[in-house]
Amino acid sequence: MRRLELLRIEHRDLDSAIAALVESGSGDQMQIARLKKRKLRLRDEMALLEDQLVPDIIA
């Protein structure tokens, strides 16, 4: 699914951006917090899409 792939890429990019801001010490805490919230929203959306791809199996 193309949307899931794009979300994963954006999630990985946000992770790199957050790490770079923390490492450099130049990022303010509000900016870092906003990026982390965005990253969490992406993770939730990815989980939802992944759940839709896997069929429910009744045991």
UniProtKB/TrEMBL annotation:
It comes from the Bacteria. Pfam families: DUF465 (PF04325). This is DUF465 domain-containing protein. Gene3D superfamilies: 6.10.280.50.
